[in-house]
Amino acid sequence: MGDPEVLEMVKEEERRLKRDSSFALEMSESASNRETSCLLSETEEFDKDKQSKDSIFFRDGIRQIDFVLSYVDDIKKEADLKIVRRKNFEENLKKTGLELEIEDKRNSEDGRTYFVKIHAPWEVLVTYAEVLGMKKPIKENDIPRPQKAPFNFILGPLKLPKNVMHPKPEYFTVQFTRHRQELFLIEDKSSFFPSSARNRIVYYILSRCPFGIEDGKKKFGIERLLNSHAYSAAYPLHDGQYWKPSEPPNTTNERYILFQNWARFSYFYKEQPFDLIKNYFGEKIGMYFVFLGFYTEMLVLAAIVGLACFGYGLFSMHGSTTSIEVCDPEIGGQIIMCPLCDLLCDFWRLNSTCLSSKVSHLFDNESTVFFAIFMGIWVTLFLEFWKQHQARLEYEWDLVDFEEEQQQLQLRPEFEAMCKKKKLNPVTQELEPHMPLKNRVPWYFLSGATVTLWMSLVIACLVAVIVYRLSVFATFSRFMESEASLKHVKSFLTPQIATALSGSCLNFIVILILNFFYEKLSAWITKMEIPRTYQEYESSLTLKMFLFQFVNFYSSCFYLAFFKGKFVGYPGKYTYLFGVWRSEECDPGGCLIELTTQMTIIMTGKQIFGNIQEAIYPFALNWWRRRKARTNSEKLYSRWEQDHDLEPFGSLGLFYEYLETVIQFGFVTLFVASFPLAPVLALLNNIMEIRVDAWKLTTQYRRPVASKAHSIGVWQDILHAMAVLSVASNAFIVAFASDIIPRLVYTYAYSTDPSDPLKGYVNNSLSIFLIADLPNTTAPLDTRDFSTCRYRDYRFPPGHIDKYCHNMQFWHVLAAKMTFIIVMEHIVFLVKFFLAWMIPDVPKDVLDRIRQERIMAVKILHDFELKKLKENLTMDPTLLAKEFIVQENKV
Questions:
Q1: pLDDT given at position 407
Q2: At a CB cut-off of 8 Å and minimum separation 6, what does 227 contact?
């Protein structure tokens, strides 16, 4: 960096900063010119101790701070280049009309950070409001809100005050244009654009403002400056302290109102102030909380039905014929079961699984089928009603005419910087940066290979956990048999249960580790693909992350539901994994209890770990920043410094929130037949999740830049796909993991006791094996005085001509299982399609209100233009008529 011109610019910048800093310490006797006021206020002496610590205004107390940039002194090699970039960037910001004010590092608490405060004057706001297509209210056209429901008083304790739920009246709105300002309801220019709209406009300018030409390419955008560390942070300010209301002359402190009525855990039972959330954080974040709240409300019904099914299992547990026979010393105590592993495992009596048989009945009973069918219908109702709710929200939040294409046309600065060629856009008919496909194909191949490799790694880890379970099962069995001190433990902790619990915990730990590394890797790979727009970037990352987490979280559940115990073989001819480890067998009560255990540990563990991480991680980082800033209290330094020391929310902060919710939705729907308490756990978690997210956004994170979204985006398609898959998965779980179908077949085809159809079912479901037929490589080392043992299957006994082959009952049960799957899927899908046809995506009253508002808006614009023509045009009737026709066509 020995270029004389660059060095001269650096020296000039240093002289300017010194001059401005010393000038800020003197009393200004009179007003100076407008240009120098962009750096330091010259209308009054600045005394940091006298200025309010919560001020969100420039030093003149009039101009509101809409955005803040920060940077620190850099003594590294590229310090001079960063100074030049900042200088060019700030000069170009001024050319767009923005006003800047710089806080010298001597005025900062840490003594090393500069703060560039940005204000957007009225002219800039109205110009870019028109560019962004913002809708604003028209004069004297308020919309009456719907009347309260007749029995709304019952829900009174759940309601928030009206001024919190609806802080502003509703109006007819039209797209803002600066040439028709008289048409709009502009009572006060300082409050016409809310702070969320102001920071959205400023960020739009920042993301497109150039800062120089380097290597023959035009460089622009605040994101590139942040990535190159020319600036350390860029963020809009919070309204004030979250624990106290603002004092005059500050504007209304919406942050305080949100904290008092939304972000407190004691308000977990209250409704959410969605309009206020939207006004403060923007429509995109508001849409997430609306979706999470609606999903939580719908979970209430599923949780009630799930609790009812669990209660049925609980009250019928002790009267279950199957459990009674297993626990009966005269029946289950006399049934000798074959060893569950080779050599080390001994023969065992069936009544040793008495407790697991009773617990299995909690989740594997007659209500299981009903609940599986109910959840298939519930998920359809949830998605269809959400479409309606989303359509109503689009109307209320002025998002009806908002199109995603507006965002798709906005290119990522990184994409533009990497492009050397340009191509005509067929939509805009303008030349835009273009990257040939051949330049991106290698990265697509690398991305696909990486995703495949990591998904294969998940499968490999699952196999490793299976091998662990197979290896330690024999150890648990031998240890628990040899230890006399474990006599009381054996009554409730069998080797099967101990293996299942330890295997599930190990699998959960592996899931968390893999998930941590893959999040970093997938973000890097997506950036290397050089997506064209922000939406393409997020869609690509969504696909990678969802595919991985789907396999990561659900693979073990799919294994237990559809594979474990299905290819075991029989004594003397077992199947082996890699020719070494014998395949796992299910408990005599079925594999459903193990699937339930796995679901409970993974789902509960993920939710607890996620909530703790979301709450503690930003809190700890913020505490450390304040500690490094030599203060432990936010009361000691300015508003922009307080927000600077908060954790940034990030452009993907909302992405991970949606991903977490969708993965939970999978647990609630895909495997709910095995665990009717899943909706209950999800409901409790979401009640806490809403307040944790609200608390961290309001208190622990910098204020995110407001952005628009008219839906939950690609997540809605993912939810629909999972809803369809859940019908098939639950049907297969009931058929193959549950013991319902074999019991029904025995009841109607093989039972001999009309008074108790299930009597004798346990003995009927166990086949006989001659111990003498056991190979020496698998038989236990100890000798026994019995000649046969039992195993779970439907095979012919030793004396039969087709001994150990499947008998006719096996084929009857298999046919019944396949019939059940077909019948259940058809019933549920028919109901789903019928409900989807019956429930319109957009409610009729919303369609009527949209049409009414459009007609009213056109009429108002027509009358406005007509009045304007009559007032301003003084010409002959013929010319007036022609001008009127032109204006009418424009309207």
A1: 47
A2: none
CB 199 within 8 A of CB 129: no
Q: Say which residues have a Cβ less than 8 Å from residue 615's Cβ, sequence separation at least 6.
A: 692, 695, 696
Number of other residues whose CB lies within 10 A of the CB of residue 113: 21
The residue type found at 250 is N
How many CA atoms, within 13 angstroms, populate the side-chain half-sphere of residue 267? Answer: 20
Q: What is the mean pLDDT of the chain?
A: 81
d(C-alpha 797, C-alpha 801), whole Å: 9
pLDDT one-digit tens code per residue, 550-600:
988 998 888 888 888 888 888 888 888 777 778 888 766 667 888 888 888
Phi, psi of 117 (to 5 degrees): -90, 135
Cα separation, 64 vs 117, whole angstroms: 9
Lookup result for tokens 């002194």: 73
Backbone angles phi, psi at 695, to 5 degrees: -65, -45
Per-residue pLDDT reduced to its tens digit, 668-721: 999 988 889 999 999 999 999 999 999 999 999 999 999 888 888 889 999 999
Structure tokens given for 547: 């595919």
Q: CA distances (Å), 713 to each of 135, 216, 536, 542, in order? A: 22, 38, 12, 11
- Residue matched to tokens 């969708």: 662
Check if the beta carbon of residue 193 is closer than 8 Å to that of residue 129: yes
Quick one: 150 exposed, middle or buried, by C-beta within 10 A (0-12, 13-18, 19+)? exposed
Cis peptide, bond prior to residue 249, ω within 30 of zero: yes
Closest CA to 285 of 199, 222, 174, 413: 199
The two tokens of residue 389 are 């709710």
Which residues contact residue 214 at a Cβ distance below 8 angstroms, ignoring those fewer than 6 apart? none
Degrees to nearest 5, angle at CA 81 with 78 and 85: 135
Return the pLDDT at 442.
78
Radius of gyration over every alpha carbon of the chain, rounded to an integer in angstroms: 34
Instruction: Please spell the DSSP secondary structure of 601-643, one letter per residue.
Output: HHHHHHHHHHHHHHHHHHHHHHHHHHHHTT-S-GGGS-HHHHH
Torsion of CA 372, 374, 378, 379, to 10 degrees: 20
Question: Cα 241 from chain centroid?
Answer: 28
**Nearest partner of 610 among 515, 526, 524, judged by Cα:** 515
User: Distance between CA 888 and CA 890 in Å, rounded?
Assistant: 5
What is the amino acid identity at position 207?
A: S
Tokens 């500690």 belong to which residue?
A: 627
Element (H, E) at 139: strand 135-142
625-628 long-range contacts, Cβ below 8 Å, gap at least 24?
628/110
Tens digit of pLDDT for each residue in 34-76? 333 333 333 333 454 456 677 888 988 889 999 999 998 777 7
How many CB atoms are located within 10 Å of the residue 214 CB? 12
* Residue-wise DSSP of 837-864: HHS-SS-HHHHHHHHHHHHHHHHHHHHH
Does residue 807 contact residue 355 with C-beta atoms inside 8 Å? no
Which tokens sit at 141? 């056209």
Q: Which helix (H) or strand (E) holds 421?
A: strand 421-424
Tokens of 853: 């508002």
H/E element, 193: none
**First-to-final CA distance of the chain:** 57
H or E element at residue 766:
strand 766-770
Rounded to whole angstroms, the maximal C-alpha distance in the chain is: 121
Q: How far is CA 819 from CA 147, 368, 373, 562, 733, in A?
A: 51, 17, 15, 17, 14
| C-alpha–C-alpha distance, residues 509 and 468, integer Å | 14
DSSP 590: B
Using alpha carbons, list the distances in angstroms from residue 662 to 341, 610, 765: 39, 14, 39
Distance set, CA 552 to CA 365, 672, 729, 795 (Å): 29, 18, 17, 37
Sign of CA dihedral 408, 413, 418, 424: positive
